[in-house]
Write a structure and sequence with these properties.
408 residues; mainly alpha; 60% helix; 0% strand; globular; binds zinc ion
Length: 408
């Protein structure tokens, strides 16, 4: 079972507290946060299978090609492994910005035009397909797979807290560790922010390899990418740069140039390369009713419970049921994205999804568990109540918000 399951309550509690503080200041975009959280659910869903695959490759390299064997259970060895992992992470992350096909995966983390704890959970669903290559030196150096998994998790969890504007500058710490100050720069699209501060735990790597820049106190950071996503759809959020690359490589003549589209630096779809000015920047936002936002929050909570149940019960389910649940949870993220965008198809699709959800309550076993009757009744009531709320809501018109405008 993914250890992330244990971190989910901490993530949600802290996202809520930060969201409450920022909302009181009129500086929280709930739709963006929900979109980020849904992208996080999707990445956990796809990661459940893909991580096993990449870990399998790591274990094979460790067993067959390692040049040394690291001691197990030694604190010093674990610390050294953490530093080594962080070094590999720096390069994986840097290549994620400098190589187009890797950027197509990593862009998900950067497509929010806000910067808060929910942004940390906005993770790619396709990154694991290629990023494992950067960690194979650890397997060859003999870091055991269990140590690799633990230090990888520590590195990932550390990066959560740095996604906030509530923590200011921290003096010398900003020049040693990755901190909110230097990570804000990493998410900025201002000229001085582009392709800077790639570190995971240590920012020292950036200072060593020439990619460090300090936050400029007098210059407001504008977050996001220069070719904006302008969507809440989590599937499109994962695919839009791949679609650009396919289009670009079809238009490009000659194999060498076609390969350059994929393996060269990101072009117009990258963070640089698109004409941009802070004066003309308009932050994406769709006007939504309070009822709709509440509805999506409620469905997000149900989706999160379904994800936790999915991750806990993965071993108890057959392959077909696991796949069906994966598709079902992903489809709920898609319809919620559509509802937030005010898409014409979203209400009908959500209706079908809720009807299917209600029908699942009749199945003899759900995720490997035989449900008792009160649970089945509650399940149907939740589905019916969701349906009733869904059809009482009015759809909101689509508008773009200015960066200076407080989001609601
Ligand atoms: Zn990045
Ligand atoms: Zn980040």
């Amino acid at each position: 079972m993914s250890p992330i399951v244990y971190a989910i309550p901490v993530f949600l509690f802290t996202v809520l507290v930060e969201g409450w503080i920022l909302s009181r200041r009129g500086a929280y975009d709930l739709r963006d946060a929900l979109s980020s959280l849904n992208l996080g659910i999707l990445s956990q869903l796809t990661g459940a299978g893909a991580k096993l695959l990449s870990l399998g490759v790591y274990a094979i390299v460790y067993e067959s090609a390692r040049i040394a064997t690291w001691p197990q259970g030694s604190l010093m060895a674990a610390l050294a492994a953490l530093v080594l992992y962080d070094f590999c992470y720096y390069w994986a992350h840097r290549m994620g910005h400098e190589v187009a096909v890797l950027w197509a995966a990593h862009v998900v983390h950067h497509s929010s035009e806000c910067f808060n704890l929910s942004t940390a959970l906005r993770q790619t669903s396709s990154g694991v397909v290629l990023s494992w290559v950067f960690y194979l030196p650890m397997a060859m150096l003999g870091v055991p797979p269990t140590t690799f998994v633990v230090v990888g998790l520590i590195d990932l969890l550390y990066q959560y807290w740095v996604h906030t504007e509530l923590v200011g500058r921290l003096g010398w710490i900003d020049r040693v560790l990755v901190t909110p100050s230097n990570h804000r720069v990493h998410h900025g699209q201002n000229d001085y922010c582009l392709d800077r501060n790639y570190g995971g735990i240590l920012i020292i790597w950036d200072r060593l390899f020439g990619t460090f820049v300090d936050e400029r106190p007098g210059e407001t950071i504008i977050y996001g990418v220069r070719k904006p996503l302008h969507a809440y759809n989590p599937i499109w959020g994962n695919l839009h740069v791949y679609a650009d690359l396919i289009g670009e490589s079809v238009r490009t003549q000659g194999l060498k140039d076609k390969l350059a589209v994929w393996f060269g630096p990101p072009g117009g779809g990258g963070r640089a390369g698109t004409p941009w000015s802070p004066a003309t920047f308009a932050r994406y936002g769709v006007e939504t009713s309070i009822a709709l936002r509440r509805y999506v929050i409620a469905q997000y909570a149900i989706g999160n419970l379904a994800l936790v149940a999915f991750l806990v019960q993965l071993g108890a389910m057959g392959r077909f049921e696991a796949l069906a649940w994966g598709v079902f949870i992903a489809s709920s993220l898609l319809t919620q994205g559509g509802l937030l965008e005010g898409a014409a198809w979203a209400r009908a699709a959500e209706t079908v999804r809720l009807a299917l959800f209600a029908a699942v309550a009749l199945a003899p076993r759900v995720m490997g568990v035989a449900l008792v009757t009160p649970w089945r009744i509650a399940w149907v009531i939740v589905s019916a109540a969701s349906l009733a709320v869904l059809w009482r809501m009015r759809a909101g018109p689509k508008v773009l918000l200015r960066a200076s405008e407080p989001a609601t």
